[in-house]
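Write out the 3D structure for:
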Amino acid sequence: MNADALIGTWFLREAYAVGPRGERLHDVYGARPAGVIHYGGDARMMALITHEGRAQLDGDRQAAPQSQRAEAYRSSIAYAGGFDVEGGWVRHAVDMSTYPNWVGTVLRRALSFEQGAAVLTTAPQMQDGIETVIKLVWQRQPVEH
């Protein structure tokens, strides 16, 4: 598999946790998340995901109450960096992110294509004491909300 199959813009259709026996556990960002990921021909990528049902802030970004700003941060993630594809994996070399802990890291995702969708699957991770993987299903057309 090469990077050419990923080049362009993809829209998040669904993102869900999968348990150790392959069972679907829960929607990670709600039943109707919004997200976009772009892979450029220059080997750079950027992604933005927001949870379903985000509330408006009272006032501008700086003047809104701290609790509202914290919730806005908690309900979104964005990052950008270089990328490459090797075998069945895509690697995102993060050089900027709303989550500072990712800067300087490489996010490795299993990559497959299913019925025209790009499916990215995280490495196993513990969530509430259960080992899970997160599956993110991306499609070429914008998702209707």
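The chain has a mean pLDDT of 94.
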